[in-house]
Amino acid sequence: MATTQPANASLIGTPHTTSHRTEENSAARAAVTPSTPSTLDNSGFPSPLCQRAVTLEDISFDEKLRPREQERLPLYKDSRRRLVFIGILIAWFFKGFDDSVITTIVPALSRRFDALGLIAWFSAAYFFPQACLAIGFGRLAAVANTRMLVVIDGMLLIVGSILCIVANSASLFILGRVITGLGIALGFPLCATVLICITSPNERPLYMAGCVGVDVMSLAFGSLLGGFFETNIDYRWVFALTIFGAVMSMVFIYPFQQPARPTDHLPVWQHLRRFDFMGFGLFLVCSICLLLALQMATQSGRWDSTPVIVLFALFTVTLPIFILQQRTHCHPDDRLLPRGIFSRDMSLLLGFGLSTMFAMYGVYYYLSTYFQSVHGLSSFDTGVCLLAFFITSGVASLATGASTEFVTYANTIILMGVTLALVGSALLTTLDQNTSRIKASLLTMISGFGFGTAQTLAVVFSQSWVAEHLQPLTVSIALMMQLLGGTLGLVLGGSLLNMRVRAGLEHLHGKLSEVQVAEIAQGSLPPEVMESLPTSVTVEVYSIMAQAVQNIFYTATGAVAVAEDEQQWLVLAANTSYKQ
């Protein structure tokens, strides 16, 4: 299998040019002859002194079964692959739609189900499965029957959405969101696998960036339609749209013809034997313990409670065990994180994606809290105010993808994106109860443009620095790291909001009931709640909420600063380029 990692890449530890897009050529083939020295240390991890090699067996098999790139029509000229790509776009559109669909309706859900104590789980139940299971599903997508996975993915989304529609309790609704999250966790590595199969290395960055751009822009429609249906009709209609999207994506992607793979001849039991169940189990326990500990601490406001301490202790124990298990695995190609995935540059890139999405999710989710709880807007009006951020992010993602056809070096684009995200996040810390809605929306556009650019580059670059057979899994890992960062941003943001608001309301306990304090601390402050507050404390409550949201934006700014530092190291390590 010919590698698509760049020639003279910075994996070798020297500041040579890192090519973002490469072509199959004789030089790549010569680099993986049987005489090539081992590039792995005793643990199976890439040596810092040389690039990872791919076996000659993989190359010969791949070249026999796959047409040469120069003999293959571009995607836009092939009707079958074009339809499959449309299905992928539909799937990514409704992924973003589902990501933000309850952003503006969480307060209404908590009142409908009388479940203020479970308000944080409405979002967490959806994002946790994605952050924990994406790697495992990415490994599965590389060997399992694609059409079977397409059907399973569609059914998970349909069942989860139906449960959300018929739910008459918070528990059933949360279960529906968990199942929907499972569908998304399976869907995006599956879409990444299919996209890599139907595109050539030269055209792949453009189409991948297009998918990311559609995903980001669909966040706007999710929040807007969620608010519209909750305000004017019934919020359950938004989940009917998710069912429609799941059916349409299945119809378009199902005709995809999976090319032959080296492992297709193996029986099922050998596939199971090669799957790293121990590594996956350790990673699952590790990630679940971390996220649950943060979520429980956020919900209760107590970081010193026994369950939280126990979960943090389990995370602290299982993380080094997982790392040790991966390093000592007897078959490095079969472990959960196979050899050839990680290098210095890839680790920096994954950290960059995690930090960027930590900030982005914290910004867009708590912008909704700002407009609802500080300006007293309805769900629909909040969705309208968020349009500026989401549309700008989506346009930036699409523009970044299009730039891959015209711009050789990516350093300028990376610097511009991260800088705008940093400046925009810093400006958002100035929002208070006296800031007009128009001004607030305009300020969000700066950070939106930066986040859209940075998110796209993190995904596009990830598949460029590894061998071709590892690209789908690498994209899945990059997306999972972004989802993990985003989930952490939501959870820690909720904790900051809760603690800051409760501290600010301490001297108002005589004027507010415990229920009102709990609603305000959770960010559940729609107009009808504010109308029930005494006039004398209304202005002070708005001020306290504004200061709490500002603290979250300060945290987001810090995360972007970390991302910029990681990006600087990437630039120093390699002069990143799109083309040879």
UniProtKB/TrEMBL annotation:
Keywords linked to the UniProt accession: Membrane, Transmembrane, Transmembrane helix
KW Isomerase (keyword) present: no
Record InterPro entries: MFS (IPR011701), MFS_dom (IPR020846), MFS_trans_sf (IPR036259)
Ranges that cross the membrane: 115-137, 149-168, 174-199, 206-229, 235-256, 277-296, 308-325, 346-367, 406-428, 440-461, 473-497
Gene3D superfamilies membership: MFS general substrate transporter like domains (1.20.1250.20)
Polar residues biased stretches: 33-45
Membrane topology: Multi-pass membrane protein
Chief place of localization: membrane
Region Disordered, annotated ranges: 1-46
Subcellular location: Membrane
Pfam families in the record: MFS_1 (PF07690)
Domain Major facilitator superfamily (MFS) profile: 84-558
The keyword Transmembrane helix is assigned to this record: yes
Official protein name in the record: HC-toxin efflux carrier TOXA
Naturally occurring in which organism (per UniProt): Apiospora aurea
